[in-house]
Amino acid sequence: MAQLTEIVKANDIRGLVGTQLTERIARALGSAFARAVLTSDPDGPPGRVLLGQDMRDSGEALINAFADGVTGEGAQVVRIGLCSTDGLYYASGALDAPGVMFTASHNPASYNGMKMCRAGARPIGLDSGLAEIRDLAQALLDHPTWGTEEAPEPELRGAVSQEDTLRGYAEHLRGLVPLDSRRKLKIVVDAGNGMAGLTVPAVLGAALGLPDLPLEIVPMYFELDGTFPNHEANPLDPANLRDLQKAVPEHGADLGLAFDGDADRCFVIDERGEPISPSAITALVAAREIGKEKAAGRPATVIHNLITSRAVPEVIAENGATAVKTRVGHAFIKVEMAKYDAVFGGEHSAHYYFRDFWFADTGMLAALHVLAALGEQDGPLSGLVEQYERYTPSGEINSVVADVSLATQRVVDAFEGRPGVVIDRLDGLTVSHEADAPSGDGSPAGLWWFNLRPSNTEPLLRLNSEASDPATMALLRDEVLGLVRVAEPAVDARG
């Protein structure tokens, strides 16, 4: 018996195709989505669901089954075809209708999944409707006659139609950040055989017949292929950036861009082939968005999650705006974006959120900001972002532990009560120390912080740490890992 708790995560649905995620399960989720969302969403046009998909081979059968579940409830389905996740969010916002994107993002080819939103790209997570959809679908799957010949035919079945939203998506993004720079930029783009192979030519190139931009694009792996023959479409893993890092200096390019499988995240490589941290990109884009608000005479608020660099809230404050810290995860940050009417939000994982994009995330719009900022001056990208890279990060380090709670408590016991140490429980465990605070009891001096967050699905702890210099960061990282991994087998997985 299928148990949806295995595949319904905090922010989306993801599972192995054929075992955890089947056509029958997709059909049940489609029925549940129509019942839960269309009946409780008075803001969107009644009875219409937008469906988009990435390039995975399993997508067509799953999306057909989901559409059958939706239409079986009497609702209409609008298929927007192959798209990026932010392309689905654009359609949801522009057409004011709820939507579902069929993707497993950066996961291997054997996986697929769904990202859901209400009309206007409003997020659906466990705390905002996904749990209800899960439970409704589980009840259908558990019913002995549902989906069999004994089940009654629906009294009224909805229709399925098609709509192309790619051009509108490209025009909308171009309108938000015009590229009228004084110099032409050469960029290498690694699409990882994912949906950026479709969206980059549409937005940055001439595939749709839009006016030429001052860009020369060197494409890498633009062929849509859900088997990911060149490397996984997960730029958060440094191994998947190596081809791009090599190509940028080889081509004499000004920068490189790498997208994940569903092309909603964008990573940036400078002219030397060095990765730029998503925190630095967050700070750069925040400064630009704050500047637009100040020019219009409006106060600005920017959201950042609690494991972005300390440089991010510093830059926000230096530019005269308000910084709001939130938990990790797009469902949480989108809620905070809307709550504070924030102009921009950024995460360490290279998700970037914009008020002008229905508070949803779009890596392509962040890329346009980087291109515009670089084109407005004559120096290299490495020099432009230097002001935003102020501290030394550890990167994310994963440890498999036998008892997550016990390992976390060991860390609390070791740091609690040390001079100048502050403990925060907003999302996992965050321990911090300010630059001018006293140190002692073995604590490193200067500014540092670390966060330990448990995985939702595995006996895993994720460590992120940062300090004012590499030596302090190394001391801090090694001390925390030593406490986490005491007498327990552990696996390192960076990214």
Question: Which structural traits does this protein have?
Answer:
495 residues, alpha/beta, Alpha-D-Glucose-1,6-Bisphosphate, Chain A, domain 3, 7-stranded mixed beta sheet, 7-stranded antiparallel beta sheet, A-D-PHexomutase_C, phosphoprotein, metal-binding, isomerase
Question: Could you characterize what this model shows?
Answer:
The protein is an alpha/beta fold. Helix content is 33%, strand content 22%. The protein has helices at 23-38, 59-71, 85-95, 130-142, 166-176, 196-203, 242-250, 278-295, 311-318, 330-340, 363-375, 381-385, 404-415, 470-484, and strands at residues 13-16, 48-53, 76-82, 99-102, 111-118, 122-123, 160-162, 185-190, 215-220, 255-259, 266-269, 275-276, 301-305, 322-326, 344-346, 352-354, 360-361, 392-393, 397-400, 421-424, 429-433, 448-454, 460-467, 493-494. The strands form four sheets. Strands 1, 2, 3, 4, 5, 6 and 7 form a seven-stranded mixed sheet that branches. Strands 18, 19, 20, 21, 22, 23 and 24 form a seven-stranded antiparallel sheet that branches. The longest helix is centred in the middle third of the chain and has 18 residues, at 278-295. The chain is globular and about 70 Å long. The chain starts with 12 loop residues before the first strand and ends with a strand. It holds the Pfam family PGM_PMM_IV. This is Phosphomannomutase. Belongs to the phosphohexose mutase family. Residues 396-481 form the Alpha-D-phosphohexomutase C-terminal domain.
